[in-house]
Amino acid sequence: MRPARLIGSLGAMAVAGALFLLPASTATATATAPGSAPAAVTAAETGTRMALSPVDLDGPAISTVKVTVTNTGPDRMRALEVTFGGPAGWAVQPSAVRVDGSLARGATAEAVFRIQVPERRSGFTVRTFTATATYRGGDGAGSATVTRTQRSGTPLADLAAAYDNVGVTDESDTAPGDYDGEGNSFSAQKLADVGLRPGATVHALGAELRWPDVPSGTPGNVSTTGQAIALDGSGSRLVLLGSGVTGGASGTATVYYTDGTSGTGSFGFPNWSFDPVNAHGATLVASSDGRNRPSGYGNAGIAYRVFAHAIPLDPAKRVEFVVLPNNGNIHLFDMAIAP
Question: pTM for the complete prediction?
Answer without folding.
Answer: 0.77
